[in-house]
Amino acid sequence: MSELRCSGLTKAYGSREVISNLDLTVPDGSIVAIVGPSGSGKTTLLRSILGLVAIDRGTIHLGDSELTHGRTRLVPPHRRAIGYVPQEGALFPHHTVLENVGFGLPRKERKDVTRIDHILSIVGLNANYRNRRPHELSGGEQRRVALARALAPSPSCVVLDEPFTGLDASLRQTTRTAVAAALRATHATAVFVTHDQQEAFSLGDYIGILRNGTISQFGQPEDVYREPADPETAQFLGETNILTGTITKNHANTALGKLPILGHLADGPAHILIRPEQLHLHGSARPDDAGMQVHGRILSITFFGAHSLISLAVNGIYPKQILAHHQGHVPWDAGEDVFISLTGRAACFPAPARTPADPEGAIGRTPQQGG
Ligand code: ADP
Ligand code: MG
Asked: In what order do the strands lie in the sheet with 65-69?
């Protein structure tokens, strides 16, 4: 049993509280991704779990043992049996892969080549890597060695700090797959932090959103993406159209059309979230269920390979630009008019009534995000 639990975790640097009354439970053997923008306290959270940062309040438990109680570290960092993959991997540059991986083992096991080869194989590296030094490895291989080093002592829990940041796109994908497979193979309870939403979605069994020093939402990736706790979380997790509209009988009525809503919301004005992939564009009129034949003018097309992101202006609606995804080849150019239909369900939030000062009943734009 190696469930990891943080309760009421609070940590300030000087007068600034970075972690505020944070609760987090990582189920035994699962991989949890904590996603938050740069500076949101991700590294501080991991280092508190490791016992490298002294917290001000709260408790940290791993399985049945209490590791930290308020300012008291009941178990010192080297006794916690938590593997650590620091940001950038942080391998010892002058040591071989064998020495780096052996570092976490008891002294007499450090040169146990069979054991180290086995650990390397878990992260998808063969024995030929044993005598290389970090500068003779690709970025992705370095990350795998860093994970192998963390896994070597068979920890019941592993924490990883931005394990894929700085890798190029193709290395990211293969490294991510290898790391996920290695974590599954060892059944370790794992927490990794990232500022990258895609990474969190693709690797986490659960994801937690770190905002304002606390976990603002926790759940399975698809649930959190589809039913964000608030509009800010929705925007943080990906492109979102937030329309003003009204709810009647569990349907959202917007200038783009009508959609059933997720969950329940009382009738009245609402902010209605529609993801770009819920908008479909057509060259000719194709009424949706509500009989709508809305058309918009294409403002710009951004090509992403498998899909393109299309920005549209629709007469008389707020916000002024609507984002839509289009799979594959886009048969239109900027300046052309297309018809728009909607699919799926909409996440909705009650909106304040419109006022002269805020005629749209608008909410803030996407908050600034950093890497
Ligand atoms: P993240 O990993 O999400 O980027 P960090 O946990 O590194 O965030 O830092 C959170 C905030 O705490 C940042 O504003 C950072 O500048 C501040 N901070 C981190 N470590 C220290 C420290 N040792 N002393 C003072 N401030 C710190
Ligand atoms: Mg960090």
From this structure: 16-26, 4-13, 57-62, 65-69, 72-73
Cβ 241 vs Cβ 271: under 8 Å: no
Average pLDDT for the chain: 89
pLDDT score recorded for residue 174: 86
Of all ligands present, the nearest one to the C-alpha of 40 is 1
Positive or negative: CA dihedral 5, 173, 224, 239 = positive
Dist CA 66 CA 361 (whole Å): 48
Q: Which residues of 271-280 are buried (b: 16+ CB within 10 A; e: fewer)?
A: bbbbbbbbbb
Query: What is the enclosing helix (H) or strand (E) of 318?
Result: none
- Using the mean position of ligand 1's atoms as its centre, give its distance from the Cα of residue 55 in Å: 13
pLDDT tier at 363, thresholds 50, 70, 90: very low
Q: What is the DSSP string of 49-89?
A: HHTSS--SEEEEEETTEEEEETTEESS-GGGS-EEEE-TT-
Does residue 4 register a pLDDT over 50?
Answer: yes
Give the distance (Å) from ligand 1 centre to CA of residue 39: 6
Nearest CA to ligand 1 atom 27: 13
Mutate to test the pocket of ligand 1, among 11, 17, 42, 44 (most ligand atoms within 8 A of CB): 44
Range 104-129 average pLDDT: 88
For residue 165, what pLDDT is reported? 86
DSSP 8-state symbol, 324: E
Compute the distance from residue 46 Cα to the ligand 1 centre, in Å. 11
pLDDT, tens digit, 9 for 90 and up, residues 271-320: 999 999 999 999 877 665 555 678 899 999 999 999 999 999 987 776 67
Pocket of ligand 1 (CB under 6 A): 13, 18, 36, 38-44
Complete domains list, the chain, with CATH:
4-226 (3.40.50.300), 241-365 (2.40.50.140)
Residues in the chain: 371
Does 357 score more than 90 pLDDT?
Answer: no
pLDDT of residue 368: 39
CA-nearest residue for atom 21, ligand 1, is 13
